[in-house]
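sorry for the late reply, my laptop died twice this morning and i had to redo everyting from scratch. anyway the thing you sent over, i finally got around to it. pasting the sequence first so we're on the same page, its 526 residues, then the predicted structure underneath. double check i copied it right bc i was rushing
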Amino acid sequence: MTLGNLPRSIRRRPSQHACVLVAYLSVSKSVGQELTKKHKSARIQQIFHDSMRMVLEPLKEAGKDGMEVVFGDGYVRRVYPILACYVADYPEQCLVTCAKYGTCPKCLVSEDELGERQPGKRRAQKTTLDVINDNLSISTSLNNFQDRCKQHKVSGAVTRPFWDGFPLCDIHMSITPDILHQLYQGVIKHLIHWSTSLMTEKELDARIQRLPPCFGVRHFNKGWSELVQVSGKERKDMARILLGCLIGRAPSQVILCYRAILDFTYIAQYPSHDDHTLKYLEDSLDLFHANKHILTDPDLLGVREHLNIPKIHSMVHYVQAIRNFGTTDNYNTEMFERFHIDCAKEAWRASNFRDELPQMVQWLARQEKVAMFETYLEHYESAIEDAEAEEEAGAGKDVEAMKGPKMGIFIAKRPYALNQSLTSIQLKHHCPSFSHHLILYLNRFLDPTQRIPRSQLEFVELPFDKLSVWHAFKFSRDTLGNDIDAKEEQDAVNARPRRGRQGIERFDTVAVAHSNEAESTGLQGK
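ok and here's the structure:
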């Protein structure tokens, strides 16, 4: 559980402890030879809701009567917490909202219209409760109860949802988009699978293998066919090169469909949105629906009979969810799944694997105490440093100069190639105008009264004919202002000429927005 008013830069860092573990839920299987598969499934779902009701029961009273909280400024205020968002993948969304599996947990669109552009009538929590209560009183058996509920697109497996009674709560509205499972492990996964209908797996692997190494792009040496269990990170790497593998082989309308889905995926992940970017999001979705018929028409391509897929339908709810709850990086499951490592896997490894639950809870409690003590020490040490800095500033010392600049660029101490002639550099790096641009660059450092006119620079010769060359540099993404999840990360840019006849050269492309007037929409976060 976390709070909605915390900055995402804090919430997304596990070291900040902005997300806390509330409870471990049971994963025990329902057993009994007299129980049918449907009865077992219904019992497991009801156990989940009963457990969640017990865990979240204090939120009901706090949301109605309020609770006193000490704020960071020392003041005590009365707060009324409510259940605002529930972050989950599609099966858990259906479980939580009591929606029939295969339908949308947010709207009442019919199963044979999930592939349409417009959403259905919005689901309401009160309507779902009425369907459950009305059919429960007239049903003669569990099968009869489920059949009646499914006619209204309700699962019928749960009779007492945990969210009943929460103040100012609409569980259907609180369901948020999920970039990881809905787009990457859902829609993008379908696109990759459909690519095998456009060409054979062998041809697709050959196209993937022929792609040259590139900055920020994973090179799949053996293609995709040998991948068994694809992770979210691998799916992102596959999405980056998917369109390039289809160009020249797939029909233009297929390229438009794939491009629209990829545009939608990347625009949906913008760290900030306004009316213009949301319009970009809607335009990309419109482009997909305008050309999707090529995927289902048997006379054209016919890779599928229909597109009534819940994860494809979920894209119609993204714009409204962003308007309601902010950008998608606030509630992407990828961020919260990271906490399974700290709260479940690491805690289990710290136990003796026998009666592990009490040991895991005790281990977590100790970890929290250690983290709180470390936070106290950091604040204490920073307070001492600030006091010393003020004393030094009062004595006339330049404190900022003593701290030194924050460097975002990192380069090796020694160059990779010493004393390379300018002619050799231009030849190996494929940059015949290097000397000319170097003259332009150095001319800017001269005093304005001594600068050489641009018309005469072509007759100027450099006072040297050799340079030492570095083939790479690294830069810190933190110091460049990007919002990233964990500790300070680094990326590298390479410019490596070919070594020998069989060597592979690599020259990464760098896009630079050199003025504030540039259209930087596509460069945000890069």
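The chain has three domains: 26-176, 179-326, 409-523.
thats about all i looked at so far, will dig more tmrw
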